[in-house]
Each structure stands twice: as C-alpha cells, then as structure tokens.
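ingest -> validate -> predict -> emit
validate: passed (alphabet ok, no gaps, 145 aa)
predict: started
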Amino acid sequence: MRLSHHLSAIALLLALGASGPALAAEPTGTWLTESGKSRIKIADCGGALCGTIAWLQEPNDEAGKPKTDKSNPDTGKRSKPLIGVMIVLGMKPSGANKWAGQVYNAEDGKTYSGNLTMTGDNSLQLQGCALGGLLCKSQTWTRAN
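emit:
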C-alpha cells in the first residue's frame, strides 16, 4: 500500500509540473524590424530593457556617409551615426511577457510612451503611443539570431 501512495504522489507532482506556468519568452537578442530595414539589439540595462540600432539595410546617406540622428532634438547628437542610437529606453516589466517604458523614433526625433510584448519565442510587438495613449502605432519584430 505504501508503494501505491508514493506512485500517486509522483504522478501528482508530474501532473502539476506539466501544467505549471510556461517560461516567459526572453526579449534580449537581435530583432529584425517589421520593414526589414533595421535590426535592433535588445539587452538588459540595469533591470530594464534597452534597445539600440545594430544594423541598417541602407546605413549610408546619398553622399555615401553614415546616416546620422539628424532629427534628434538635442543638436549635439544630430551628427551621431544612427547605428548605436538607443531607441528602446528603460522598459520595465509591466505584466506577463510585457514591458513598458519609452520608444525613441529617430525618423522624427520624438520619444513616445511604449510597450514591448513578447508574442512568441521569436516575435514581439513594439508599440509607441502619443497623446496619453490615444494614438498608437505597433510593429511586429522577428528574432534575427
């Protein structure tokens, strides 16, 4: 009778383990943007997520020089090459597979409130919002590595 209790206990533990919470998808790594024109490297930066432009399909401007952060509101940063510019700023956990923080758009030089949500092991959705969340745009990124 003791053996049957042990087997029952083992079976229960295995069943509980199989139905336990799934491991959270990991957002760190390199991601291809929805347009395929850039790759963003997301890394941990002091307990938050930060993302920098790691690659551009067209890294140079018409003159053959590296594209710069020409729309940055900080005039001292406008000559900085786009590769290396941080666009995901200090996103902290805000739910299951979700982070909230800010998103910098190098095209218009503005920073928006943002969310990053893992939608699978190899896909995430990045959302940037203006006007207190009334106007939002989203992109789906795919893992590049």
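Residues 2-18 form the longest helix (17 residues).
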